[in-house]
Specification:
This protein is of the alpha+beta class and 77 residues long. Helices cover 26% and strands 19% of the residues.
Length: 77
């Protein structure tokens, strides 16, 4: 576990498996925060909204085509 930056703090042994409770010793800053993609309780990320607005205004694409491109329903956009 040392190679993974983890420290085992507890263990449970079962007949068919073992469970280890670990604590992070070295935080991994490489991992990104998934909450930064969109504000809480929104249906589309900020980038998806900007993309959809650009497509409507600049390319004059229909809302139906945008929803298909985003893979969401009409009500989401």
């Amino acid at each position: 576990m040392d190679d993974l930056g983890l420290e085992v703090v507890d263990q449970q042994l079962h007949p068919d498996h073992a469970m280890l409770l670990c604590r992070v010793v070295d935080p991994d800053d490489w991992c990104q925060d998934p909450t930064a993609a969109a504000a809480s309780r929104v249906k589309l990320s900020t980038q998806a909204v900007v993309w959809a607005l650009k497509i409507v205004v600049i390319d004059r694409m229909s809302i139906a085509r945008i929803t298909a491109g985003l893979g969401v329903s009409w009500n989401t956009v």
